[in-house]
Amino acid sequence: MILERRPDSMARINTPELAQAFIDDQLRRIREQVGDKKVLLALSGGVDSSVVAALLIKAIGQQLTCVHVNHGLLRKGEPEQVIEVFRNQMNANLIYVDAVDRFLDKLAGVTDPETKRKIIGGEFIEVFAEEARKLDGIEFLAQGTIWPDILESEAGIKAHHNAGGLPDDLKFELVEPVRILFKDEVRVVGEKLGLPHGMVYRQPFPGPGLGVRCPGAITRDRLEAVRESDAILREEFDKNGLAEKVWQYFTVVPDFRSTGVKDGKRAFEWLCIVRAIITTDVMTATVAEIPHELMVHITDRITHEVPGINRVLYDFTPKPTATVEYE
Ligand code: XMP
């Protein structure tokens, strides 16, 4: 059976050898728990759910069904990477749900940040539940719960974000093969399982995705501007060795326009804010120092390559007083 609690004596998994020992042990435990039954997994493409998927594919192969919901708020290239890695390379049983219109239609005109978050979370459960009901004979639900989730929910710091949420007719037994691991250990195990480095070491990304980086009512064009500017920022940070040094970095495009000039004509367009922070625990954060020349280059690319953006700003505010995200 899957271990419920992290043994006090457990060594930190920080080498490929320790990762392999963990993987071998978990494969045995997963097979013992699941037998010949079927398992369902919501696969976002984040580190935790990706490692759980890779473990389960190794342990039970086609008995696992992964559901990837594209809610339209993912970063550029993410849904494609999930399909490439899990369906094409690992031969997983993957259901890809294009729910982009559904989410964006529900979010149209909604400006309140908390309401936006609730709509995204609620709709996600609904889409996932619909897919689950289409499948026969599922008895288990796999989740990427990790040890800090358990500790934080026990300490009353936050509700365990993975705990349930599914309607009553969909009560499955849980399979949580990384629940005794810390985040850094999940990454070491993920690399040993052969997941791409970029997937395993990707920066944190909030559940509501780009939705919280598009302050105000989300529109398709502004959302596209967030996605494209974020992709440029990531590309430049990767190229210039900042991806390892800066803890989290992204762009925000608020619902605000200012006057500019493009090709000799007045351009009344959005502005793009670049946020780059350094932190250890995200409770507080300082602002990353980006070389001036690189910022000038990034600004040039974003204003020339992303439709609708005529201005780029850098956010110099630490946490506190700001939070990391804008909503
Ligand atoms: P804040 O904005 O609260 O962000 O300073 C702290 C860290 O948490 C991430 N974040 C989220 N992660 N679901 C998540 O899984 C969320 O709703 C969410 N909101 C913020 C944020 O990206 C940062 O790393």
Give the helices and strands, then pairings.
Layout: H1 16-34, E1 38-42, H2 47-60, E2 64-70, H3 78-89, E3 93-98, H4 100-107, H5 113-134, E4 138-142, H6 147-154, E5 173-175, H7 183-192, H8 197-200, H9 220-239, E6 248-252, E7 257-262, E8 265-278, E9 286-287, H10 292-305, E10 309-314
Parallel strand pairs: 1-2, 1-4, 2-3, 4-5, 8-10
Antiparallel strand pairs: 6-8, 7-8, 8-9
Bound molecules: xanthosine-5'-monophosphate (XMP).
Structure description:
- It contains 10 helices and 10 strands.
- The mean pLDDT is 95.
- Strand 8 and strand 9 form a beta hairpin.
- Helix content is 40%, strand content 18%.
- The protein has helices spanning 16-34, 47-60, 78-89, 100-107, 113-134, 147-154, 183-192, 197-200, 220-239, 292-305; strands at residues 38-42, 64-70, 93-98, 138-142, 173-175, 248-252, 257-262, 265-278, 286-287, 309-314.
- The strands form 2 sheets. Strands 3-2-1-4-5 form a 5-stranded parallel β-sheet, with helices on both faces. Strands 6, 7, 8, 9 and 10 form a 5-stranded mixed β-sheet that branches.
- It is α/β, with parallel strands linked by helices and 327 residues long.
- The chain binds xanthosine-5'-monophosphate.
- The site of xanthosine-5'-monophosphate (XMP) has 10 residues, from loops.
